[in-house]
Amino acid sequence: MDFRFTDEQELLVESIEEFVARNMPEELINEMYETGVVPDALSKAWMDAGFGLMGVPEEYGGTPCDNLTLGIMYEALYEASACFSPFCSNVLAMFDVCAMGTEEQIKKCVQVYTETGEPPFCLAITEPGAGSDNKGMTSYTKKQDDGTFVLNGSKSFVTNGEDFPEMFVIAKDEDPARENKSFSLWIVPIDALGVS
Ligand SMILES: Cc1cc2nc3c(=O)[nH]c(=O)nc-3n(C[C@H](O)[C@H](O)[C@H](O)COP(=O)(O)OP(=O)(O)OC[C@H]3O[C@@H](n4cnc5c(N)ncnc54)[C@H](O)[C@@H]3O)c2cc1C
C-alpha cells in the first residue's frame, strides 16, 4: 500500500497550514480553550476558504472528496493549530442531511451552513451507555394512536447542543432492545417539549 500523499493532498495540507497561520493566532486558540467558544468569524472564514464544503456533494455547492482526504485535512488542521475544533462535526451533520434529508431540509441546511459556516443542527448519536457500540442505544420512538411519535432517551457528547436550534437524533423504532436493528433519524427542535 502506498502511504504517500498525492500532489493535491500535499497542497491541501499546505493550504490548511496557511489558513491556521492567517486565522488562528495562539492568543485566539488560548481564548477558545478558555471560553469553550469558536468565534462565528472563524467558522465563516473556514467556510469562505472552501474547507467547510469539502466532501459535500457538488449539487449542493460542495467539493466531493474521499474520506482519506477529509481525514488528512482535519488532521492537518488539528496538527497546525494544536486545537480540536468543531468544524468537523459541522460537516458530519451536513453529510447526514444531504444523504437522508428531504430537498427542503437539505436546501435550508445548506443555505444556513454556507452563509454562517455552521449548520442549524447538532448531532445527538452517542448515549451514556452507547458510544462505538451503536446497537447498545436505548433511545427509541413509539408511534401513538394519533399518528404522532414520542421519542424517549438520553444523549451525551452533543457538540454545540447548547447553541444550535435543532438536533439530529438517532433512535430505535418502537423497541429499545439490543436485537432491534431498525433506527430512524429525527430532526428535533432544541426547545421541543420534554428536551432538557
Ligand atoms: C470532543 C468530542 C465531541 C463529540 N461530539 C459528538 C457529537 O456531536 N455527537 C455525538 O453523538 N457524539 C459525539 N462525541 C462522542 C463520540 O462519538 C464517542 O466518544 C465515540 O462514539 C466513542 O464512544 P465512547 O466515548 O463511549 O467510547 P467507547 O465506545 O466506550 O470506546 C472506549 C474505547 O474502547 C475502544 N473500543 C470500543 N469498541 C471496541 C471494540 N469492539 N473492539 C476494540 N476496541 C473497542 C475504543 O476504540 C476506545 O478506545 C464526541 C466525542 C468527543 C470526544
Description of the molecule:
The chain has 196 residues and is α/β, with parallel strands linked by helices. It has two domains: 7-103, Butyryl-Coa Dehydrogenase, subunit A, domain 1 (Orthogonal Bundle); 121-189, Butyryl-CoA Dehydrogenase, subunit A, domain 2 (Beta Barrel), CATH 2.40.110. Helix content is 40%, strand content 14%. Strands 1, 2, 3, 4 and 5 form a five-stranded mixed beta sheet that branches. The radius of gyration is 18 Å and the shape is globular. It starts with 6 loop residues before the first helix and ends in a 7-residue tail after the last strand. The protein binds flavin-adenine dinucleotide. Flavin-adenine dinucleotide binds next to strand 1. Flavin-adenine dinucleotide (FAD) binds next to strand 1.
